[in-house]
Amino acid sequence: MKHNYNYLKRFIKKNFGFQKKYAEFLGVSNICLSYKLNDKQDFTEEQIIKTKNAFNLSPEEVFKLFHTEEKGGKGNGSS
Q1: Which residues pair with 3 in a beta bridge?
Q2: How far is residue 24 from each of residues 2, 12, 46, 47, 76, measured CA to CA in Å?
Q3: What is the pTM of this model?
């Protein structure tokens, strides 16, 4: 499953200003966060919960930020 992190990217910009600040909040490098936002690495449960708790996010908001699927799955051969 391919993720679409556009909502999360907007959330980061609104609440942290820069991805580097969100990376620091999560305790990861900026490169590691870039991998995650480009769907090359998964966010850990701990990282998701840390974000949820810090911003008092509802389950629906968490799902929207971290589990939105990419539409139209490029090159997956499905019809």
Answers
A1: 69
A2: 25, 12, 14, 11, 34
A3: 0.85
3-state secondary structure labels for all residues of the chain? CCECCHHHHHHHHHHHCCHHHHHHHHCCCHHHHHHHHCCCCCCCHHHHHHHHHHHCCCHHHHHHHHCCECCCCCCCCCC
* Angstrom distance (rounded) from CA 32 to CA 36: 6
Residue 53, token pair as written in the block: 């708790």
Residues 36-48 have pLDDT tens digits of 999 999 999 999 9
Instruction: Compute the distance between CA of residue 70 and CA of residue 74 in angstroms, rounded to an integer.
Output: 9
